[in-house]
Amino acid sequence: MYISNNDIRNIVSKLRAEFREKTKPLGNKNERGTKLHKYQVDFCYIVDNIQRGPIFAIPFLIADGEKLIKSIA
Predict the structure, then answer these.
(1) In the prediction, which pLDDT does 5 show?
(2) Is residue 65 part of a domain?
(3) Comparing C-alpha atoms, which of 50, 42, 34, 31 is closest to residue 68?
(4) 28 CB contacts (<8 Å, ≥6 apart)?
(5) Which of 50, 57, 65, 71 has its Cβ near the most Cβ atoms within 10 Å?
(6) How many domains, the chain?
(7) Mean pLDDT throughout 52-71?
(8) Domain with 33 in it
(9) Are the C-beta atoms of residues 27 and 43 closer than 8 Å to each other?
């Protein structure tokens, strides 16, 4: 399975848009210790790993990102 850089950019863009929509109700106060900050940190690590990690891990990381987005209350 080959995933191009363009595919990775599209995947990350889609995940970012979903994350942004899901976190809107949490407001803009992303100070350390808030729920929003925790979600942002976790999401940033997932996105970084998708962009810079090994190709074989991308499907697992996408699943992790989607699971994180679904868990946002």
Answers:
(1) 85
(2) yes
(3) 42
(4) 36
(5) 65
(6) 1
(7) 93
(8) 24-73
(9) no
